[in-house]
């Protein structure tokens, strides 16, 4: 007879929010002193089915829906936009927005904003992407107040978050708009949609497939590897990003 030891996690989606409250009530709690947001850790005692004498404590991690978004308390002028959503999708805002990938599931929008603020400068808004059940899917975005912070974050590209709960390398890329026309090539206008964004600090522009290839900086070797100068900083390497290629 085997004793199966499972190390891992499961997701549980309840039909009612009340059930989450009930399970948290049953849990024992441990206040987390490293966080100043008043949150605590929840542990549930479970009994093995075979022998009731075996007790195990499992951690329950609820996701608070309000943790998906964080907005700076300062009142930013809406600048004539009807809603926040409209403002966030404006070109002016997208030019200050970074996409965050490979995010740890326990990072809240507030924590993400604070990390980015400390490293790169003031943050206006942060959001964690969620699935249809409003549970985090491992990506998010941050809107900086200044373009300077945006460029600092994009240049960094990768960030290692080390705390007592986890250690993880997160990825920072420009947040892309899906409705920008191609920047053209060789001084020629182009009316195509710019489906590829060149993340090199020398470009930082949207191109269609044709104009991408026409750009002398985008010469591709036979291996498909960018023909960049050896030893060039990663932020200067011409690398195409696509809006729909973010989520693997
Ligand atoms: Zn084009
Ligand atoms: Zn380029």
Automatic annotation (TrEMBL):
One Pfam family named in its UniProt record: CEBP_ZZ
InterPro entries linked to this entry: CEBP_ZZ, CEBP_ZZ_sf, CPEB, Nucleotide-bd_a/b_plait_sf, RBD_domain_sf, RRM_dom
The RRM domain, residue ranges: 6-62
Entry keyword set: RNA-binding
Sequence ranges assigned to domain Cytoplasmic polyadenylation element-binding protein ZZ in this UniProt record: 168-219
Keyword RNA-binding: yes
GO molecular function: mRNA 3'-UTR binding; mRNA regulatory element binding translation repressor activity; ribosome binding; translation factor activity, RNA binding
A Gene Ontology BP annotation from the UniProt entry: negative regulation of cytoplasmic translation
Entry's Gene Ontology cellular component terms: cytoplasm; neuron projection; nucleus; synapse
Protein name listed in UniProt: Uncharacterized protein
Record lineage: Eukaryota, Metazoa, Spiralia, Gnathifera, Rotifera
